[in-house]
Amino acid sequence: MTTYVALLHSIVLGPGRRVVMADLKAMATKLGFRDPRTWVATGNLIFEADDEPLAVVESQLEAAFSTCFGKHVDIILRKAEGWRRLAAQNPFSERNGTDIGIRIMRKPLGADALSMLGGIATPGIALALADGDLWIDFGGKPEETKLLSHLTTKKLGIGTLRNANTVKALAAMLD
């Protein structure tokens, strides 16, 4: 039995419509996943299932999501040990967790992405890569920086942004 952490890239289905976490847990149960649980209403799901390659489980989740909710959503998956490693790698752990963003990637980013984003980041923003995931110390409110508009699937590949507090809370849920 393997514990997985799944992150939905977006839970907005259209104007005024969001995914309800109870419906997301029901979808996971229909897939045969066990003990589905969520963290707040932002598309974070933890569950147990047979040990499979991440790409296989991601595909199952994405197909089921499309069927249940009528929209494709990219879902990024990590096994519990990978999630714990991610949470422990915070290079900005002394800072406020809501000011720290992590672009959690399906495929690891390389130094070229870090260099490109470093050229865009304004003073006061710090960037770091850890196992291909991008850590960002926004130095304040993330929504007040132009860097957010460059953290897209089109520019970086499939990934999703979470703050350090969420990453830490999901790690705690694994224990």
For the biggest sheet, the summary is: 4 strands, antiparallel
Number of domains: 2
Low-confidence stretches: none
Determine the CATH topology of the largest domain.
Answer: Alpha-Beta Plaits
In DSSP terms, counting alpha (H) and pi (I) runs of 4 or more, how many helices?
6
Q: Strand fraction band?
A: 25-35%
Task: Just name the CATH architecture of the largest domain.
Answer: 2-Layer Sandwich
What is the helix/strand order?
A: EEEHEEHEHEHEEHEH
- What's the helical proportion of residues? 25-40%
Measure the end-to-end span: 15 Å
Mean pLDDT: 91
The assigned structural class equals alpha+beta
Characterize the overall form.
globular
- What spatial order of strands do you see in the largest sheet? 4-5-1-6
The CATH first-level class of the largest domain comes to Alpha Beta
Any overview of this molecule?
The chain has about 180 residues and is an alpha+beta fold. It has 2 domains: about 1-80, Alpha-Beta Plaits (2-Layer Sandwich); about 90-175, Alpha-Beta Plaits, CATH 3.30.70. Helices cover about 35% and strands about 30% of the residues. It is built from 6 helices and 10 strands. A 4-stranded antiparallel β-sheet has the order 4-5-1-6, sandwiched between helices. It has a 4-stranded antiparallel β-sheet with strand order 8-9-7-10. α3 crosses α6 (about 165-175).
